[in-house]
Amino acid sequence: MASEGLTGSRIRERRIIAGFKQADLARKIGISASYLNLIEHNRRRIGGKLLLDIAATLGVEASALTEGAEAALIASLRESAAGASIATNELDRAEEFAGRFPGWAEVLSAAHRRISGLERTVETLNDRMAHDPQVAASVHELLTTAAAIRSTASILAEDKTITEEWRDRFHANIDQDSRRLSDSSKALVGYLDATEHASDAQTGGSPQDELDAFLEAHDYSFPSLEDGSADVDTVLQDTPQLASVAAQHIARKTLERLQSDAKRVALVTLRDALGADPLDPISLARSFDVPVSLMLRRLAAMPDLQTGLVVCDRSGSFVFRKPVSGFAIPRFGAACPLWPLFDVFALPGQVARRRVQQVGRGSAEFDCFAVAEAAGQATYNSAPLVQATMLIVPVTTTFDTAQDALEVGSTCRVCARSKCPGRREPSILSEGF
Amino acid sequence: MGKRVLLVEDEPNIIEAITFLLSREGWHVDTHSDGATAVDKVRDLAPDLLMLDHMLPGKSGLDILTELRSDSDYAALPILMLTARGQMRDRAQAEEAGVSRFMTKPFSNTEVLNAVRDLTYT
Questions:
Q1: pLDDT for A93 beyond 70
Q2: pLDDT, position A205
Q3: Closest CA to A387 of A400, A372, A370
Q4: Is residue A126 located within the same domain as residue A170?
Q5: Taking a C-beta distance cutoff of 8 angstroms, is the pair A329, A367 a contact?
Q6: Smallest CA–CA separation between A326 and chain B, in Å?
Q7: What distance in Å separates the CA atoms of residue B30 and residue B18, rounded to the nearest whole number?
Q8: Closest CB to B16 among A150, A158, A173
Q9: Residues B65, B81 contacting (CB under 8 angstroms)
């Protein structure tokens, strides 16, 4: 442990003990609070006159701030104990603890540093979310416009004696405000989309997000793997979307499965087999002698069918998402529990075929074909890992059915379906929020 | 003349709707859109009720509220704050500063009328 690297931590500890606020100490020694903050978090080196000034202001010897590893360790233990409201007599034994159990003391100290770092990260992110001026201004604009429309519309609806002049004026106001509301909403969505993409580009998001970006960049289609003219390694070269090792690992597994699927069911052959008949994945799986889940994946890989696909494990976590226009698939799992995708876990092997419609997303209907099947090799006395696969087909391209469409949502938070038995949390679209 | 309300708000269509609503109920409604001069306007007009937007050009509704409450002449003036800032923190700050009622946008006309009646015992 480099003693110099922890001088900042010791300054922070001594400052807190002395009862100084960061801004107060900074003012006394003639530097900015933000610079002192950097020093305290060991992001700026410190020495010379500034160190002497700080030591003098805190009433300690400069050496107390620059002592070696043992002193730093003890300081860290004390800081960690201070947060845990430990008894004073125990606090006084920090030195003894560090001396007798240096290994454990180091573990405790490291854990404390890690927690502090994570807390700072959470604070920073929370602050960023709460204080994004663009979002705050846009939401303020939306709510203000909505207030004007609501108030004006109520007057028009409730007051039957209103004069023609006032009525015309209020109609004009509503027209003006509704246009404003429309423009503001679009602007906000545009900003959030841009922010999201910028954030993804900067941080890479989660490994699953990186995979999604990679697949989207290839339009979920890999002709060179389909026809065998390239291998997975070649496809994975020069893939800027896959920044993390974890994402590269997931992408490799995804592409290897696609390659394996393509060997068993070539898209060219599948296209011929489809013909003009209504889509029948069970029949197709039988004729190619493949599992239904594989057939669903192959159908989703056909660019001209324009279908969506979701695959999840038994925990409900998505391991593959291919979106389709009109059917929202949440980015972070926690999808609508009414989806046929989750029904099929009850009876692995049984193929569900269900017409669905997402609440609040127009009249578009989809036929969903779903099946749960064991993933991986069988082993003795061990329940198989099961994955569920659901193909989402826009209704015009598939079988005809007289059954009513099942109303489902995307995810509870943005679903307006009232009295839903599957609701986990209130929707931001309802009054319950 | 009925009781007097001063509406400090910078959104023209909200001003128009609330003015119509309260005038219909017999209130005399004065309006003002500039935060910087809002306190002077209150002193000039001595309203029976102040309806105050939170975000105003020149000075925030919260600052206006704080300034008025620091003057003993306005310690008891009913102040209804209308705001699109509905976070707990905003409400807590307004309550700490002495707001009489805090109402978040979008509000219903009934809510506004009920609040006005409650605050002025009309």
A1: yes
A2: 61
A3: A372
A4: no
A5: no
A6: 30
A7: 11
A8: A173
A9: yes
Distance CA A20, CA A296 (A): 65
Q: Which structure tokens are listed for A41? A: 């978090």
- In contact, A326 and A394? CB cutoff 8 Å: yes
Question: B4-120 sits in which CATH class?
Answer: alpha beta
CB of B84 within 8 Å of any CB in chain A? yes
Token pair of A98 as six digits: 């560090």
| Domain final residue pick, A188, A203, A218 | A203
A185, A102: one domain = no
- In the numeric block, the tokens 């002025």 are attached to B120
Give the CATH number of the domain where residue A401 resides. Answer: 3.30.450
Q: Which residue of B has its CA nearest to A177?
A: B13
With CB atoms and an 8 Å threshold, state whether A173 touches B55.
Answer: no
Residue A49 falls within a domain, yes or no?
A: yes
Q: Which of A61-70, A174-183, A382-391, A400-409 has the lowest mean pLDDT?
A: A61-70
Q: Assign B118 to helix, strand or coil.
A: helix
Within a domain: A289:
no
Please report residues of B whose CB lies closer than 8 A to that of A172. none
Examine the domain organization and report whether A23 and A138 are in the same domain: no
**How many beta-carbon contacts under 8 Å exist across A and B?**
61
- pLDDT at residue number A432: 38
Residue A8's identity, in one-letter code, is G
- Residue A120 to chain B, least CA–CA distance (Å): 21
Measured distance CA(A186)–CA(A215) in Å, rounded = 27
What is the structure's pLDDT at B41? Answer: 95
On whether any CB of chain A is under 8 Å from the CB of B72, the answer is no
Structural domain boundaries enclosing A357: 302-433
Crossing angle, helix A69-83 and helix A7-18, to 10 degrees? 50
Is the same domain home to A430 and A306?
Answer: yes
- B13 → chain A, closest CA residue: A148
CATH number at residue A88: 1.10.260.40
- A386, A374: one domain: yes
Q: Are residues A149 and A126 in the same domain?
A: no
Q: In whole angstroms, what is the distance from residue A17 CA to residue A76 CA?
A: 13
Is residue A166 within 8 A of residue B20, CB to CB? The reply is yes
How many structural domains comprise chain A?
Answer: 3
How many Cβ atoms sit within 10 Å of the Cβ of residue B98?
16
Distance between CA atoms of B26 and B5, rounded to whole angstroms?
A: 11
Residue A211 included in any domain: no
pLDDT at residue A28 is higher than 80: yes
Residues 6+ apart with CB under 8 A from B93: B62
With contacts defined as CB-CB under 8 Å, which chain B residues touch A148? Answer: 11, 13-14, 17
Tracing tokens 């995708």 back to the chain, one arrives at A341
Task: Please say which residue of A154, A176, A203 terminates a domain.
Answer: A203
Delimit the domains of chain B by residue range: 4-120
Cβ(A56)–Cβ(A14) under 8 Å? no
ipTM metric: 0.84
A259 found inside a domain: no
pTM, to two decimals:
0.47
Q: Could you count the other beta carbons within 10 Å of the beta carbon of residue A113?
A: 16
